[in-house]
């Protein structure tokens, strides 16, 4: 259900008053403010299958959440406000975090929220930072205002915000299909290391997709997957992984190939660009290892992150 502006304002005021009365009568403390962390993701593989009639591309990808986070504080308010740690980012409804609150407000009579967003995930880097921010604002607002949309309802709201947003309502491991909004849960190992190299370069996803040449005879990875993949299975699958967008990006930014070479040279059993770039990641077997040679890339302005795969609490499951 969606509300007109005047009706929404009236319902919002009633909502706050009723909430206050009910919580006082029941002795339940009123939650006014919460802090949450929104993780990044990597695409273990990404296939572009075809261009659809609606202008989007049909893809298939295996996504994994990682322990690199933006930090978000949500505080109840009578209107939507956003502050961002990076002054180069917008603080209006062109920011996905703001837009998520706005769209949820159109479906439920919440008064508003003050959003404080600290950006740690590199932007324009294929790590899904903006999509994660949007999904965790949705999650956080449902908790803050005690809302209980169904999983399908919240996923529908999330998919309207962006293709990657629904993934961040999952358990952090999923096979992604469609334009990115369809996900199927999978069980992947989390006992390995991830090194992420992110150059000071933001790449336009739309521009990358507009330049891709879709092959007709490329072997599909999807049929090789099972719902349960252990570490040995991941090692075998890594021989077949690829990112179809990587070639397009390297044609325009050939120096990025040095990042992949550095990761493989440091012992990664697999390395790839994530999403539409510009970040590259390497997967490393468990156990002690020094990455000093990669840390030296900081002198060239390359951001270096040592991460691990993580699981998320799936919404409503």
What does this structure look like?
The protein is an alpha+beta fold. It has two domains: 181 residues, Ribosomal Protein S5, domain 2 (2-Layer Sandwich); 115 residues, Alpha-Beta Plaits, CATH 3.30.70.890. 30% of the residues lie in helices and 25% in strands. The protein contains nine helices and ten strands. Strands 1, 2, 3, 4, 5 and 6 form a six-stranded mixed beta sheet that branches. Strands 8-9-7-10 form a four-stranded antiparallel beta sheet, covered by helices on one side. A hairpin with a 6-residue loop joins strand 8 and strand 9. The longest helix has 22 residues. About 3% of the residues have low confidence.
How many structural domains in the coordinates?
Answer: 2
Structural category: alpha+beta
- Helix fraction, binned, reads 25-40%
- By CATH reckoning, the class of the largest domain would read Alpha Beta
Low-confidence spans: 17-24
Radius of gyration: 21 Å
**Beta strands, count:** 10
Output the number of helix runs. Answer: 9
Distance separating the two termini: 23 Å
The SSE string, one letter per element, is HEEEHEHHEEEHHHHEEHE
* Percent of sequence in beta strands: 15-25%
Shape: globular
Note the main sheet. Answer: 6 strands, mixed
CATH topology of the largest domain: Ribosomal Protein S5, domain 2
Tell me what the CATH architecture of the largest domain is: 2-Layer Sandwich
Summed over residues and divided by their number, the pLDDT gives a mean of: 90
